[in-house]
Amino acid sequence: MRSLYRLQPALIGLLLLGLWEISVRLSGVATFILPPPSLVAARFAQAWGDGTMMRHLLPTVMEVTVGGLIGGALGLMIGIGLGLSGVARRLASPYLVAAQSTPILALGPLLVLWFGPGTTAKIVICALITLFPMVIATLVAVRDADRGLLELGRSIGASRIQSLLLIRLPSARSGIFAGARVAATLAVVGAIVGEWLGGSAGLGILVNLARGSLFDTPLLFAALLQIALLGAFAYTLVVFAERLSTRLLR
Questions:
Q1: Secondary structure of the chain in the HEC alphabet?
Q2: 8 A C-beta contact, residue 138 and residue 175
Q3: How far apart are CA 179 and CA 175, in angstroms?
Q4: Which of 113, 134, 152, 188: disulfide with 231, CB 3.0–4.6 Å?
Q5: Where are the domains of the chain?
Q6: CA-to-CA distance for 37 and 19, rounded, in angstroms?
């Protein structure tokens, strides 16, 4: 019974794919408008077989990894600082909100102007888009640490560093990883946005090629599928890291 319960999401996905396939076949809609899943799967396999998908996937993975790690690390440090200091939090919060309210797509051309159309601009975009969720999640988790444990630490003479390392951060772990899960998927979004602004390789470039000069809708869906799989993989890595940290800190 438990195994059937775990398979429910997969079964629902298969049902939806089946309905999609049947609907397209029966309606006779042109494949360049909406290809059936079977054709998308065949195009996906072909793109992997001829090396097209791998050639475009590797640059995106590199941008997501480097940009996500930089943005995550900076967000963690800034979030800890703001969580510990009410004054810093009050001064910085309006600017953080204003920065987050600015669409990253609007900032893209400016970043390309500053850093060039190469990999650096794409990494910066990934870092910026992951920064805010990490800052907010870390800030809230550190600020809202267990007051009873903090009072106990102060009563036995714990320093601010000891309170941070032994009380605040362990109790904030779940909140920090919640922000990291959001940031991991947003890093993929940032990489695709950066690639739309220019470049020669990347999944965002493949999407542009498929919908533009090639007019290959099945390849477009295959590229979108690969982007979704990359986002799911990044999310899974963060979940694995959280579980590993929980086991190590028991």
A1: CHHHHHHHHHHHHHHHHHHHHHHHHHHCCCCCCCCCHHHHHHHHHHHHHCCHHHHHHHHHHHHHHHHHHHHHHHHHHHHHHHHHCHHHHHHHHHHHHHHHHCCHHHHHHHHHHHHCCCHHHHHHHHHHHHHHHHHHHHHHHHHCCCHHHHHHHHHCCCCHHHHHHHHHHHHHHHHHHHHHHHHHHHHHHHHHHHHHCCCCCCHHHHHHHHHCCCCCHHHHHHHHHHHHHHHHHHHHHHHHHHHHHHHHCC
A2: yes
A3: 6
A4: 188
A5: 1-30, 35-248
A6: 10
**Per-residue model confidence as pLDDT tens digits over 125-181:** 999 999 999 999 999 888 887 777 777 777 787 777 877 777 788 888 889 999 999
Cα distance between residue 176 and residue 181, in whole Å: 9
Count of all residues that appear for the chain in the document? 250
Give the CATH class of 35-248: mainly alpha
The one-letter code for the residue type at 111 is L
- pTM score: 0.89
Token pair in block for residue 103: 């669409």
